[in-house]
Amino acid sequence: MKNSNYILATALMAIFSSGALAEDATLEEVQVKATQDKPGLNLKKKNTTGSRLGLTAKETPASVETLDAQTIRQRGDISIREAVTRTTGITDISTPGNGQAFSSRGFTGNNSVAQAEDGVRLMTGAGTLTYPSDTWGYERIEVLRGPASVLFGDGAAGGIVNSVRKQASRETSIEALVGAGSYGAYRAALGGTGAIGEIGAFRIDASVLGGDGYISRGDYDSKKLMTSLLFTPTDNLRIGFTLDHAEDSPTANYGSPLRYGKITHSLRSKNYNVADNKMDFEDTRARAKIEWEISERLKLRNETYWFKSDREWQNAESYTLNPIAQTVSRGTFLAITHSQKQIGNRLEIIHEDTLWGNLNRFSAGWEISKTDFRHASNSGNSATDVIPVAGYTGTFLSTTSVLRNYDADLKQQAFFLENAWNATDRLKLVAGIRRDYIDTERRDYRGAADSDKQFTPETWRVGAVFDLTADTSLYAQTSRGTDPITNLLGLNLANGEFDLTRSRQAEIGIKQALQNLKGEWSLAAYHIAKDNIITQDPVTPSISVQGGQQSSRGIEFSTTLYPVEHWRLDFNAALLNARYDELREGSTGISRAGNTPTNVPEKVVNAWLYYQASEWEAGIGARYVGKRYANNANEITLASYTVYDASAAWHVNKQMTLRANIRNLTDKFYAALAYGSTQQIIGAPRQLELTAEFRY
């Protein structure tokens, strides 16, 4: 807290001592903005996640969506998780163990819904990803739904979330934010960019946040520093460097124990974790990127990166309520540490020319990376205790020490090609293919045998886009992706015997920008089947085999409308049918065919209505998440819920905005997520945040 307050004070001093920039700020007061810059689906803007060829969202034969920083701020979304779950069909399934994770199109977790920053992924270690966590410093968030393996490798059958950072500019600007809210919440952030010499530019973004949390002993804090340098020695050459560091200690919330299978309002604010709990994530990233326009038709890009992530947990993670004795039995006293390092390089060339008289864009590339992962834990701990339901914290118990568990090494190479050809003035054909070479090794230190495994998956996408008019396009595509059965980092001997799962998708859709810039909309229908998931042998159920299958089919609709002056409507909805087609579980091989996978809602709807005037704005939003299940047997149900949010802002002048955001306006009591069969994480109650935003 002392460090956070010091950084907060420094940020405030920087904001209010910036009088030297007053003259520049005055010059920038009159701004002319084209109407096409209105927030929306951005169909006619380039999307870097759906393709590497510079295609717009409208030209891409896939479901892509862009969430801009202005919209994120209007809605009051602080974390990447909050912002992403406003997009079409994506829900948050993050638990303390996996950092942040999502559900998309019926597929869940960090082995099926990938995450990236500026198009570069950090490999998933033991199911966990922890960066980036908050939205400050990012220009936009791009989402590609459906298999993304042809662009980003394995582990993306449900899609990928790509956070795109703000770029360094030679035009000086500063932005800042300070805020406070319910449950002791505080937030401060500062960002700035400007020139270095004759050819350089810099950008720095820093943020701190924290609070007491809405459950007892639910304190949390986070801080990060993002830095970037950009040099343009010639008009055709750009050289960039970034160095980031983040420390995140979120609330260690493992949920509330169920009373006769239901959550209980009286336990909403209770925390049954130990008093000396730990959950600390530290991430450091460095990158160097070169972009060289060799000629008008040929470009080269090369990016070298180094990532490091250290994580530590110490918690009691499972709780079972005895409603008669009014006690809670605690178990799974688990202590874990992760040390993960990744180094890699991606080289690609992009060529633009004509083919048979029509524009043709082509890219080819090579990517190589090496990841080292070290895992230690108190595996084998059998400690348990019983505490009063009224709340007695106690301390961490363990019958074993934290010892080195296993080391894992992952080496990957990939070659990829992508092509987009304008076959006619209206028809565009897009295709991509990728071949990976994966070598994973694991060394066990707890008596298990070492293991190693090689994979050579081939993934592809073929699609077509037909322009009915200049503003309306139809598209169709089919694609193939791959997911690991568990994490590639740390496959044990048993799991190393299995191959990667395979996903196949077929999708059709329509995208349209309305006339007179009244808005945009898109509609998509898809079917995804994922083969080779682990199931039990039907003859000998004690043996695990590949051969299971799960699938989903659905319809997604999203729109941004400007029906009349000052008013804006954002709306999206996803309806799907997700099921196991073939899955057997347990010692008797019980069939789960026809059941819905865990934590997958089959209905998700988001809506926001805004009124925007020159001096003030206001908005109200709603989020509906349908019924979900806590296990594959579909015996434990999480009820559907609707949460309302509201916001209002006063633009004091060109440099200052005062904003208020209320989350969970009606104080809805609901289960946000299942954590095992005996407890569920309860959604956050009503919270108010007041912020002051500054721009110079």
Structure, described:
The chain has about 700 residues and is mainly beta. It has one domain: TonB-dependent receptor, beta-barrel domain (Maltoporin, Chain A). Helix content is about 5%, strand content about 55%. It has a 22-stranded antiparallel beta barrel. A hairpin with a 5-residue loop joins strand 27 (about 545-560) and strand 28 (about 565-580). It is globular, with a radius of gyration of 25 Å. Mean pLDDT is about 90; it is low at about 1-35.
Brief characterization of the structure:
With 696 residues, this protein is mainly beta. It is built from five helices and 39 strands.
Task: Please write out the topology.
Elements: H1 2-16, H2 22-27, E1 63-68, H3 69-75, H4 80-84, E2 91-92, E3 102-104, E4 107-108, E5 113-117, E6 120-121, E7 138-145, H5 149-152, E8 159-165, E9 173-181, E10 185-196, E11 200-211, E12 220-234, E13 237-249, E14 256-257, E15 278-293, E16 298-322, E17 327-355, E18 358-377, E19 385-388, E20 403-422, E21 427-444, E22 451-455, E23 458-467, E24 472-483, E25 501-513, E26 519-536, E27 544-561, E28 567-582, E29 584-585, E30 590-591, E31 603-612, E32 616-625, E33 628-629, E34 637-638, E35 641-653, E36 656-663, E37 671-674, E38 679-682, E39 687-695
Parallel strand pairs: 5-8
Antiparallel strand pairs: 1-7, 2-3, 3-4, 5-6, 7-8, 9-10, 9-39, 10-11, 11-12, 12-13, 13-15, 14-38, 15-16, 16-17, 17-18, 17-19, 18-20, 20-21, 21-22, 21-23, 23-24, 24-25, 25-26, 26-27, 27-28, 28-31, 29-30, 31-32, 32-35, 33-34, 35-36, 36-39, 37-38
